[in-house]
What we know:
Elements: H1 4-12, E1 17-21, H2 25-36, E2 40-44, H3 112-125, E3 132-133, E4 136-144, E5 147-157, E6 163-168, E7 170-173, E8 180-181, E9 195-198, E10 212-216, H4 220-230, E11 235-240, E12 248-249, E13 256-260, E14 262-265, E15 270-273, E16 278-280, E17 283-286, E18 290-291, E19 297-298, E20 304-306, E21 309-311, E22 326-328, H5 337-353, H6 361-377, H7 395-402, H8 410-424, H9 436-442
Parallel strand pairs: 1-2, 1-7, 2-3, 4-19, 7-22, 9-17, 10-11, 10-17, 11-13
Antiparallel strand pairs: 4-5, 5-6, 8-18, 12-13, 14-15, 15-16, 20-21
Amino acid sequence: MKSQFLAHYTTMGPPSKVAVIGAGVAGLSAARELLREGLHVVVFEKSDQLGGTWKYDPRTDSDLLSIDPNREIVHSSMYLSLRTNLPRQIMGFLDYPFPDRDNGDRRTFPGHEEVFCFLNKFAEDFGLHQFIRFNTEVLRVERVEEKNDKWVVECRTLGSDSVSREVFQAVVICSGHFTEPRFATLPGIEKWPGYQIHSHNYRVPEQFRDQVVVLIGYGASAFDISRDIARVAKEVHMATRNPDVTVMKLGNYNNIWQHTMVKYVSEDGSVAFEDGSSVYADVIFYCTGYKYHFPFLETNGIVTIEDNRVGPLYKHVFPPALAPGISFIGIPEKDIIFQTTELQTKWVARVLSGKVLLPTEKEMMAYVEEYYKQMEKSGLPKHNTHYLHFKELGYGNWLAAEVGLPPIEEWREEMYLECIKSLTEMKDEYRDKWDDAHWNSIAKSTPFPQNG
Ligand code: FAD
């Protein structure tokens, strides 16, 4: 039964003012969709530019492990050589595609600069700049008097000591989740004498010249950064928990080895792997991912983060007890991010304008509990809660249907899965060996409708 918010909007009308936190992919898409629904939007952005992660910043956190809570934090984790891990055909929005290769960067998998330009053009074409308050950091979001349609947003503008407060009927959280590092625990690390860094603080390989680097991780960043560093480092030893890994020297390189996980590290600088081998290393490099982190959000324990599960969230977006006042965009991982983000924002905007109704709180909770039960049954750990490609390939189509859009063309998912396969198999140069002719014949994109 989809009724709880219809009754609310019949008496109160849809929310007049909506706060969006962040002006990255998620925040820009949210702003566009909320404006399309005729809502009053304020986007808070703590930096002086839009684009979020895609704005390359040569600075790093003041603590290269990003552990010190008082460190100076740099938001973006982009490194200079980064190219997208998905082809440009699936790096845009469904109704606002990424430019083809005739413009700018001619590669099918462009560099980060082109994605940044794309987002700026998107903001310009939809007139979004005027709704963004740059240099304004949200410090606190809290419900007023237990009402889901009254949220106080406290923020501070750069250079000012004063904190200002404003009340909104809804807050859409688009603050990103690739800034707060996650780590592997290594026995003996307290006494290990070498240099440690997390990929959040990696920009260029030069500092690793002639060094022996142990790099922990097996995701897209580990794949790219190991190759980037190997250009100057003496040796790169990749360590992973992946049980299927073959312990070996990589064929295409004379200085990259693949190992199982680090077993322990010692005071003499050595690093021992579970496969029985060991090396004396100068650097331990963590490509171990990121944690969800919303330091500004106060929900009195209604929304928690446990082992990287943000919950409870109905369809990774709405906490049932706080819906529709609070929503999260961009939580899903292992997914076609731009497309999913766009569909989530369309859904949230329609829910907030009253055009689309949510189930009751009880129904949404039941859904979440069943989802957790299914995960447990399949043996999936909590920290995989928001990984879509393991179990929710239909998620995008569910969102599309919810806002009255047709199903997403199948080639998009085929293309995505092909990239995941290349990454999982660690296929070097998959970006440059991509079969453009084949994919171009399949990916005949018909313009996706803007509205259902
Ligand atoms: P972000 O881009 O992180 O934007 C969040 C914004 O919120 C930032 O501008 C930040 O300043 C602002 N903000 C945060 N907190 C506050 C606050 N308290 N007050 C005010 N403003 C705040 N995706 C792909 O599709 N393809 C790729 O190839 C790809 N490669 C990636 C490579 C790396 C190294 C990383 C880290 C990510 C990559 N991604 C990739 C994922 C990428 O994060 C998403 O594409 C996308 O940028 C997520 O957008 P977002 O808006 O959710 O978050």
